[in-house]
Structures are given as C-alpha cells and as structure tokens.
C-alpha cells in the first residue's frame, strides 16, 4: 500500500525504507493525479523524452499553459540490491534539494517524489520538478561526443562565464562540507540575461557530506572539465584560480590544486567520439567573431 503525503514542502522524514510512499506538493496534487491517470509519466505517451539511458529516463511533461514538469523515472532499477533498506537516488535527491535550497542554491521547484517497495526491496522510484523553460545546459559546449550539441563549443566568452559561475557555486558547496559527485556540464543550466548568466543546478542526487580536501576538489572539477576538451591547461588554471577566490574556507593553493587535478585528470580521460578545437584566451576574438557571423 502506498503511503501518500500531500503537503506544501517535502521533508526527509517522509522517506520510508520498508514500504511504498510518495510526496506530492499540495498545489500540484490535482495535476499529478490527472497526468498519472492518462499515462503522461510514461515514455512515448504524449510527453517528450529529454534524456534516456538503459535504466532511466527524463520526460518533459506539459501540465498547463506555461507550466511543464521534468519527470525522472526508471525503466528498471539498476543494482536494486544496493537500495535494500536504503533510499533510492530519487529519495536522496529530494532530501538534497531540501538541504541545498536551505543553503541558497538555485534549484528548480520540487513537485513530487516517491518509491515503490515490496517490504525493504526497492521496485521503482520517481522524481518530478518544475521544468524551467528558457534555460540551456552544458551540452552546448561538449562538441558532439557524450550527446553534446556543440552549438557554442568555440564561444570562449560564453564558455568562460558558464565555467566561472558554476565553479563559484561549487566552491560554496565545498565550503558547506558537501561533495557534489555529479558535477557534469549536462547537470548545469544557464540562461543569458542582460546582466550576465542566470544559473541553475539539476540532478543533485550524488551530493553527500564529505571531508573536502584537495583530492575531493579535484575530483568534482574533473567531472566537469573532462567533457570540455577544448579548454587547455592554462585556461583551466585560470578557472580553478577563480574557484579558489570564491571559496571562503582555504584548503589548498593554486599550484597544489592544479598539480593534483592534472594528475587525476590524465588517469580518467577517455577517447572522444568527437572533439572541438583547443581554446585559450588568444582564441577569444576569433571565436566571438565566428559566433557573430553565425
């Protein structure tokens, strides 16, 4: 039997490890029931699939005029034994939302979350948030590998602003003693405004408390930079210097961070299906000119 909580806000106390449960934001409850009844939370049934792997999917679900939801579900729960009496990624992400929102991080509105269990055995889970229209993600800078679009892969000013802004947020997260664990450009959103970039984070399921050392800083940064092969070592150093300036808790210096970063990055880099040209500051003028011409 599903235990349902309908309330203005989610609380981690609603999570159960031994029975099925869900939470739905009270203002979204009627829409949630209507959409569930017509199968809108199933792939290929009127909703647009915006991300898919062998085990999970993300749908863009129309709710009402001007209101869409991002619904994350599972084709199958991969490694279900890991969640025996442990929260699913969906439940963990919802708990992380509560914590990060309390710390002032920019996240979409949480709408619903739940798990289906047979006793302590996890069978299914879901997570729903408001789809924030007008934002793009870091796939724009990937080239064409890793599902990247490469639309702005050589726009150095935009790329630097994207990197600097999100690395400053990462420094704030580390100051709070939290490791991101999934700091990849595809999880980082941006929107261009007259005053600069407006940033948002999605997919914070892997965030966890940690003792933040130079190794942890480097590992989070590697998940970010390893997709951006067009950024050379000199530009990475400049961006990592910006991270250190944003950090309020001193843990390392630039030389040590760059040294650890380059060593660990070399071990983790994988061959690319496609790549974009290496960029440095000297390319800024020509890159900007090309973007204007397009």
Overview of the structural elements:
There is one protein chain. Helices cover about 30% and strands about 25% of the residues. The longest helix is centred in the middle third of the chain and has 20 residues, at about 155-175. The strands form three sheets. The chain has a seven-stranded mixed sheet with strand order 1-2-6-7-5-4-3. It has two domains: about 5-130; about 135-294, no CATH class. With about 290 residues, it is of the alpha+beta class. It is built from seven helices and twelve strands. The protein starts with a strand and ends with a helix. α5 packs across α6.
Q: Encode the helix/strand succession as letters.
A: EEHEEEHEEEHEEEEHHHH
**Lateral strand order in the biggest sheet:** 1-2-6-7-5-4-3
Structural domains: how many: 2
Could you tell me the strand content as a percent range? Answer: 15-25%
Main pleated-sheet profile: 7 strands, mixed
What average pLDDT do the residues reach?
Answer: 88
SSE class: alpha+beta
Approximate shape: globular
Low-confidence stretches: 271-275, 282-294
Rg over C-alpha atoms, rounded to the nearest angstrom: 20 Å
Number of helices, counting only DSSP H or I runs of 4 residues or more: 7
The helical percent reads 25-40%
The end-to-end distance, rounded to whole angstroms, is 56 Å
Q: Find the count of extended strands (DSSP E, 2+ residues).
A: 12
Structure at a glance:
With 294 residues, the protein is of the alpha+beta class. Helices cover 32% and strands 23% of the residues.
Name the features:
single chain; 294 residues; alpha+beta; 2 domains; 7-stranded mixed sheet; 7 helices; 12 strands
